[in-house]
């Protein structure tokens, strides 16, 4: 594809332009304003015989054992598998949030990316909120029906990552 041409000029693989605005949250009631996105040329994995199979979160913590224990106790994640060094310290691990595997590193922490938000889909956000609030021992904002669809609440872990629990999906603007 020629540089600068729109993806839609030649095939169906198009992505929003990085500078395009897809909406905004404003004011106390978080009203949503949607605007059209401009499609631009982008690589299409299908054109190269490839398929995107998914995304795997990978988080770095200075103390992986403490982070894994917190995720199990507070968030209800399960099945942690730990790889330990000779001193017994976890240097690599996997833990599950439902069917999603999350990689956890015990080192190599950087200040970049600490503003990440992870969305965890649950079937009963109010019940999960009660479990998380009780296990964390912290006051949390109660779940809220968002103007864009889901009912949500968010907790920030002791290391600065945000975990947002969603019941339902975002609905496209009309």
UniProtKB/TrEMBL annotation:
Q: Where is this region: Disordered?
A: 1-32
A Pfam family this chain is assigned to:
Glyoxalase
Q: Where is the composition biased (Basic and acidic residues)?
A: 1-15
Domain VOC per the UniProt entry, residue ranges: 51-168
**Protein name as annotated:** VOC family protein
Which species does this protein come from? Answer: Streptomyces bobili
Q: What is the lineage of its organism?
A: Bacteria, Bacillati, Actinomycetota, Actinomycetes, Kitasatosporales
């Amino acid at each position: 594809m020629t540089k600068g041409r729109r993806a839609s000029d030649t095939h169906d693989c198009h992505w929003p332009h990085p500078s395009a605005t897809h909406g905004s949250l404003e004011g106390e009631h978080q009203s949503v304003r949607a605007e059209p996105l401009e499609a631009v040329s982008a690589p299409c994995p299908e054109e190269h015989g490839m398929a995107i199979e998914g995304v795997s979160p990978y988080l770095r913590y200075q103390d992986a054992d403490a982070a894994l224990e917190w995720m199990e106790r507070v968030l209800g994640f399960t099945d942690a598998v730990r790889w330990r060094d000779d001193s017994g310290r976890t240097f690599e691990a996997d833990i599950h949030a439902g069917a999603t595997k999350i990689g956890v590193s015990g080192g190599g922490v950087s200040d970049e990316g600490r503003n990440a938000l992870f969305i965890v889909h649950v079937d009963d956000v109010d019940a999960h909120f009660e479990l998380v609030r009780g296990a964390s021992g912290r006051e949390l904002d109660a779940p809220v029906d968002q103007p864009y669809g889901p009912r949500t609440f968010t907790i920030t872990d002791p290391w600065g990552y945000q975990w947002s629990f969603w019941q339902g999906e975002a609905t496209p603007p009309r």
